[in-house]
Amino acid sequence: MQVLSRRGVIFGLSALGLSACVGGAGSGGPVGASPSEVPPRPVPNAGFDAWVEGYRARAAARGIPANVINEAMGFAGYLPDVIEKDRNQTEFTRTLEDYLAIAAKPERVALGQAKLRQYGGVLGQIEARYGVEGHVVAAVWGLESFFGTRRGVVPVVSALATLAYDGRRGEFFESQLTAALKIIANGDVSARGMTGSWAGAMGHTQFIPTSYLAFAVDFTGDGRRDIWGEDPTDALASTAAYLAKNGWQRGLPWGGEVRLPAGFDAGHLGRGKGKSAADWSALGVTAASGGAVPAGGSIIAPNGVGGPAFLLTQNFNVILRYNNAESYAIGVGHLSDRLLGRPAVQADWGPDRNGMTMADRQALQRGLTEAGFDTGGTDGVMGAKTKAAIAAYQQAAGLPVTGEPSLELLRRLQ
User: Fold this and answer.
1) Phi/psi of residue 83, each to 5°?
2) N vs C: which end of the chain shows fewer Cβ within 10 Å?
3) Concatenated DSSP letters for 150-174?
4) 185, 68 Cβ separation under 8 angstroms
5) Cα gap 374→389, rounded to integer Å
6) Contacts of the segment 58-64: beta carbons below 8 A, 24+ positions apart
7) Is pLDDT of 62 > 50?
8) What's the pLDDT tens digit per position in 350-368?
9) DSSP character for 10?
């Protein structure tokens, strides 16, 4: 969260199970962790220890108090698990259909609606101060940490020191480490209490340290900008402050699904090809639920003119400042709508590259589960667990093991 996108270094959706560090983020052990998530263990590393000694002098030269350096770096350890994650980031090629299915899955929407009721008063106060609607702030919370249930358990100082020592993006991570020490020096959190993702994103809404310094606020007035604790108030207010300072316009929707008329010219589509609401209406574009287009902006149709189409306003661009990924920003907008009870995407996405529709993929997951090969759910998303179940079934059935879904496999299971 700074001039460079808040997530300039955080890739993906943890909280989503996507999240990114979203997707979704999932998380007993420490509060906010998943049942299977435990803090990584440091291991001895003489090179890392030497790097830490050198960094101590650089931190002192940057104005970090000696007691903070001693506290934080005395606690820091080398985390090979973090290096492994940095080295093995998968370039996800999820379709937008899959992304939105995860971003707004029923469990997330139900929990989010409960959180809106629980924190409605707080979110109303935050909206009054910063002009960012509460359901939008809640949607960011939902994607980043599954509403605080998956905040991360990695010691941030150790993770950042490990990544800075590793050197692949050493300058960046050292800047984040220095920012983290400044946060500790300010008294907002202790070195041991500063936990988050493997790449240093922290708290309910996953701020990296430099973004925290630039945008975090003490909304509760207790003298600390606490984004780590059970109370999400400061984190939610900090997210609203971030969006507000990046140009959020109160009352302007992020966009939404629209319906294109028959024969619509695809040349009008694309970010950067914005038109007023009146111009879109003149071209026959309507809101997906009927009625006029709610605002001006650009329109994209990821699957072509015959598939779902989305209007994107200036507020969509502000969400991109939080995470510069088109699917993420649409995910936040779509989840924010679903939290208000608005419908799922109405247009048909059509078949995927395997010729399978969402209904086909869900039927495949049901068939595998009934055959004793657990897919972890029937959301229609062909994630790692579903592909492992497919591979196990193929092996058991004496088929070539590909781990890939197909209509032929679906027919075998029916």
Assistant:
1) -60, -40
2) C
3) ----EEHHHHHHHHHHH-TTHHHHH
4) yes
5) 6
6) 58/174, 58/178, 59/178, 59/181, 62/178, 64/178, 64/181, 64/182, 64/185
7) yes
8) 999 999 999 999 999 999 9
9) -
- How many residues are present in the chain? 414
Report the pLDDT value the prediction gives residue 1, as an integer from 0 to 100.
Answer: 39
Quick one: average pLDDT of 6-17? 42
Cβ atoms within 10 Å of 29's Cβ, excluding its own: 13
Q: What is the 3-state secondary structure (H, E, C) of 73-96?
A: HHHCCECHHHHHHHHCCCCCCCCH
Helix (H) or strand (E) holding 298: strand 298-300
**CA-to-CA dists, residue 251 to 30, 133, 144, 189, 217, angstroms:** 38, 8, 23, 35, 23
User: What pLDDT is recorded for position 18?
Assistant: 46
- pTM for the whole structure: 0.90
Judged against a pLDDT cut of 60, whether residue 281 lies above it is answered with: yes
Residue 8 has pLDDT above 60, yes or no: no
Secondary structure element (H or E) that encloses residue 315, with its range: helix 314-322
Q: Which residues face 20 on adjacent strands?
A: 13
* Interval 327-340 mean pLDDT: 98
List of residues 6+ apart from 106 with CB closer than 8 A: none
pLDDT over 60 at 11, yes or no? no
Q: Which residues of 155-187 are buried (b: 16+ CB within 10 A; e: fewer)?
A: bbbbbbbbbbbbeebeebbbbbbbbbbbbbbee
What is the token pair recorded at 32?
């906010």
Please write the tens of the pLDDT for every residue from 222-253: 999 999 999 999 999 999 999 999 999 999 99
Q: What is the pLDDT of residue 233?
A: 98
- The answer to whether the beta carbons of residues 179 and 52 sit under 8 Å apart is no
CB 76 within 8 A of CB 56: no
Q: Domain ranges in the chain?
A: 1-246, 255-339, 358-413
| Cα separation, 169 vs 208, whole angstroms | 15
C-beta atoms surrounding 339 within 10 Å: 23
Average pLDDT of span 117-123: 98
Quote the CA–CA distance of 206 and 11 in Å, as a whole number: 12
What average pLDDT does the chain have? 91
Residues whose CB falls within 8 Å of the CB of residue 29, separated by 6 or more in sequence, listed in order = 35, 37, 38, 39, 153
**Closest of 250, 218, 221 to residue 236, by C-alpha:** 218
